[in-house]
Design a protein that fits this description.
heterodimer, A: mainly beta, seven-stranded mixed beta sheet, 11 strands, B: mainly beta, globular
Chain lengths: 115, 108
């Protein structure tokens, strides 16, 4: 196992609600990245947090926001949920950001269903 | 054009077969390259990094051709446990781009 944990495992929300997903990074890792994976697709990069600051963002609207805490755990918040937000949300931790030895280790994911 | 494109698959092969996956990427500034495998309804797991000189890990061999912006993964002597979706991953600084994946099923 990677040592990356996520909670909750599954979540059902209704359209328009807000959701917070949580991730604990692997011990010693200071970087957390969040991904959205729709069924049958590869993960899509949402954003990354490095030492508590946002350090890059993919093509997701501002209603997707995040935080990283001093212990390097992280939250992903999604406001005004839409049906298309239904997906597996993955967090990945790494030591540092970018570079040739940049390897990320994924948590088990949170499966979000929006009805 | 997608930033990372993979063979659409699926690949259905018998045990013991050799199978190759290909992946192309569009960003010539990409710095790091990886193959991940993902089992059904599980998280992606790092299979191997891909280096310019090519690298091998047991039955798995990865190649990178920067000039052609092409990555490959070769699996020799396929096992039933190799059945999974294989994801090609390309990074530029902190931006990690995944292909849509190629599904492999190894049959007895």
């Amino acid at each position: 196992e990677t040592g990356v944990t996520q909670s909750p495992t599954h979540l059902i929300k209704t359209r328009g609600q807000q959701v917070t997903l949580r991730c604990s990074s692997q011990s010693g890792h200071n970087t957390v990245s969040w991904y959205q994976q729709a069924l049958g697709q590869g993960p899509q990069f949402i954003f990354q947090y490095y030492r508590e600051e946002e350090n890059g963002r993919g093509n997701f609207p501002p209603r997707f926001s995040g935080l990283q805490f001093p212990n390097y755990s992280s939250e992903l918040n999604v406001n005004a949920l839409e049906l298309d937000d239904s997906a597996l949300y993955l967090c990945a931790s790494s030591l540092g950001s970018g570079g040739p030895t940049y390897e990320q280790y994924f948590g088990p994911g949170t499966r979000l269903t929006v009805t | 054009r997608k930033e990372v494109e993979q063979d659409p698959g699926p690949f259905n092969v018998p045990e013991g077969a050799t199978v190759a996956f290909n992946c192309t990427y569009s960003n010539s500034a990409s710095q790091s390259f990886f193959w991940y495998r993902q089992d059904c309804r599980k998280e992606p797991k790092l299979l191997m990094s891909v280096y310019s000189s090519g690298n091998e890990d047991g039955r798995f061999t990865a190649q990178l051709n920067r000039a052609s912006q092409y990555i490959s993964l070769l699996i020799r002597d396929s096992k039933l446990s190799d059945s999974a979706t294989y994801l090609c991953v390309v990074t530029n600084n902190n931006d990690m781009r995944f292909g849509a994946g190629t599904r492999l099923t190894v049959k007895p």
